[in-house]
Amino acid sequence: MSAIVDVFAARSDNFGYLVHDPSTGRTASVDAPETAPIVAALEKRGWTLTELLITHHHTDHVEAIADLKARYGCRVIGPKGEADKIEGLDELVGDGDRVEVGEIVFDVYDTPGHTLGHIVFHDAQGGHLFSADALFSLGVGRMFEGTPGPMWAGLKKLRSLPDDTLVYCGHEYTESNARFALSIDPDNPDLQRRAAEVTALRQEGKFTIPFRLGEDKRANPFLRADAPELARHYGLEGKSAADVFAAIRRGKDNF
User: Where is the Metallo-beta-lactamase domain (predicted)?
Assistant: First the structure.
């Protein structure tokens, strides 16, 4: 049986995710942004937390680790590259590793940039990617610690995943991401369609996630840094995709 994913709001604009294996009853929370919403979601579903999958060290993704570990005795799995920044990790993982939650198998990918040790979890069988702050709908995380080359390389790994992959990101930033994307890629019909869909969803008070990776490949300028039209927009014809990616990221930072 495939994984059941429960999506809920946490903090001011975080998403919380529970991933449940119906065959074994094991349940993981992807990141630990806030105790109360996670506990409420577990109780509503009648599930017990057995694993915490941590993507990076920022407070809004790790704050509830100690509370949840004390309450449920769950196993905490997180990035080996940030072991010195995250309290309470039981198992360290990185690129190429696999994590099992019952019969659900997650492939781990390194996605440095937002933080140097940022990782993501991909359930290939179920077609779910938990990208946290590495990849957003129509955007990517701010580059707090990394540099453009490795961040672009990590995103290319994610871009190579199947188009029908459902992406679950860390924050509800899609509306603002759409406004920026349209400012640099206004003639992109896929972006226009997604932006209109996002506006309608937000007007109805609905989440903009999960989103299909294939749609984002065509609409998200950060996944299209090797597109000639974006190089032309920034006057970077002939430059590397990493250079164009850096220009797009600077543009968003100052938008």
Answer: 13-171
